[in-house]
Write a sequence for this structure.
């Protein structure tokens, strides 16, 4: 995985996440691949919200980061529902509608994030030489029970 810039690292993760979800939508019955994609999606959201977004917000990218966090929160219940269904042995057929919804949400979210937030992240490192974002993202470890900032409570 090419991790030379934040955008390359995170865009590759988007592709891997989308593949697992799209597989189910496309008729694939590989719920293990879906479960792996959902796990990566949670880790991806954690990495963004704890390592990527704070320095970008401090650098003035407040509104785009807010929108990304809000969209993470909108996806959160769907991610949780799909993860629980995978863990409980649900059939791929029973997951297709939720996967289609998640894929649609990701299809709207990811391009905005890549074009605005990731582009800003790639410009951030050269402008702030003592703050390597890729290194910070590599060190980000999601603690058990972590929830995205705008996940619904309850």
């Amino acid at each position: 995985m090419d991790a030379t810039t934040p955008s390359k690292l995170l865009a590759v993760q988007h592709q891997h996440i989308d593949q697992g979800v799209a597989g189910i939508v496309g008729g694939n019955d590989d719920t293990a691949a879906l479960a792996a994609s959902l796990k990566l999606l949670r880790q991806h959201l954690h990495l963004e919200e704890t390592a990527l977004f704070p320095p970008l917000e401090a650098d003035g990218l407040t509104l785009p980061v807010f929108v990304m966090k809000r969209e993470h929160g909108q996806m959160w219940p769907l991610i949780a529902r799909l993860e629980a269904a995978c863990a409980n042995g649900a059939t791929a057929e029973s997951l297709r509608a939720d996967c289609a919804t998640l894929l649609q949400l990701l299809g709207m979210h990811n391009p905005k994030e890549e074009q605005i937030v990731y582009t800003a992240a790639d410009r951030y490192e050269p402008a702030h030489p003592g703050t390597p974002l890729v290194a910070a993202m590599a060190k980000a470890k999601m603690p058990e029970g972590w929830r995205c900032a705008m996940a619904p409570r309850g």
Q: What stands out?
A: Residues 6-139 form a domain with the Four Helix Bundle (Hemerythrin (Met), subunit A) fold (CATH 1.20.120.520).
